[in-house]
């Protein structure tokens, strides 16, 4: 799947580099392919239909916390790679705090609230698969006004969460979002850059640009990085190095392609012969009346199946 490099600001981050760059509180936005996601995007007039938050523990492990019929946390890279066939685009937004803010305190507050109140709290139960009865009135209020704030602090019901409400509740607990914000009126689009002025984050917090996450395979990534490093050379050395790099990659790809082709040939030909012989013998067994003829047919079937027991030979292709 191709992800548009210049869809937002031209920046991209490789999914396997993300754990070393992200921090607790960062936002992951999703644009999925399924019909339900398309309905949400049309319903909210937005590019995004799902949102999750990054949680990075003290052991330097990165997780994504999201709501999907319940709040759960998964390994960040594993979850994003699993999402890959089902999405149009995934973007990452970095949480930015001013220099005078105690980031460690903010991150600890987020981690404790997520683990103790949203994931491990036995008294908190998600009693609805999707709380339409709460979302629809909030959506109609949103059509009348873009103001997410009430005149007094809003106490959010943790038993009826959805993806964007869960993220909003976490930010409210960390003090990065006003307690007057009605989390029921927060949708995934509100965590995109055009709605930063609507969210009005507190304590000087803000979110950075939407950076697309790329999913190219590791060999392709390694090759592209090596090719880009060649540009640091000059003149004939740069040209020769680029030629050698491209030739080595082409030989490797050709060798792997030839190996797969020969393997398919070795597997398909005996299998096809075996299937034809088995079908012929089974038909003959049905038509034979005597036990001796049946035994002869079964012995012939066993002899035909013997070549399949021999191991396949993989050709050694020199590169």
UniProtKB/TrEMBL annotation:
PROSITE patterns, alphabetized: IQ
Source superkingdom: Eukaryota
InterPro entries, alphabetized: Papain-like_cys_pep_sf
Protein name in UniProt: Protein glutaminase domain-containing protein
Species assigned in the record: Prymnesium parvum (Toxic golden alga)
């Amino acid at each position: 799947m191709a992800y548009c490099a210049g869809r937002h600001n031209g920046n991209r981050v490789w999914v396997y580099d993300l754990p070393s760059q992200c921090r607790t509180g960062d936002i992951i936005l999703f644009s999925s392919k399924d019909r339900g996601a398309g309905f949400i995007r049309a319903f909210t007039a937005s590019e995004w239909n799902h949102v999750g938050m990054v949680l990075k523990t003290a052991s330097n492990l990165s997780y994504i916390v999201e709501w999907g019929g319940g709040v759960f946390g998964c390994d960040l890279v594993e979850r994003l790679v699993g999402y890959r066939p089902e999405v149009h685009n995934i973007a990452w937004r970095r949480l930015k705090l001013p220099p005078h803010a105690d980031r460690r305190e903010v991150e600890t507050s987020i981690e404790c609230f997520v683990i103790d109140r949203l994931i491990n709290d036995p008294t908190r139960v998600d009693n609805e698969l999707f709380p339409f009865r709460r979302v629809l009135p909030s959506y109609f209020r949103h059509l009348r006004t873009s103001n997410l704030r009430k005149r007094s602090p809003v106490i959010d019901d943790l038993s009826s969460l959805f993806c964007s409400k869960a993220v909003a509740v976490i930010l409210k607990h960390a003090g990065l979002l006003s307690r007057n914000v009605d989390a029921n009126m927060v949708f995934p689009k509100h965590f995109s850059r055009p709605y930063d002025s609507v969210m009005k984050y507190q304590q000087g917090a803000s979110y950075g640009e939407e950076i697309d996450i790329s999913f190219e395979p590791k060999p392709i990534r390694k090759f592209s990085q090596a090719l880009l490093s060649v540009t640091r050379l000059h003149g004939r050395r740069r040209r020769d190095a680029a030629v050698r790099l491209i030739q080595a990659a082409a030989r490797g790809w050709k060798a792997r392609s030839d190996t797969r082709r020969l393997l398919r040939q070795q597997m398909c030909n005996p299998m096809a012969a075996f299937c034809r012989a088995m079908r012929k013998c089974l038909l003959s067994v049905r038509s034979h009346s005597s036990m001796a003829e049946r035994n002869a047919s079964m012995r012939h079937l066993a002899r035909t199946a013997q070549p399949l027991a021999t191991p396949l030979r993989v050709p050694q292709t020199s590169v």
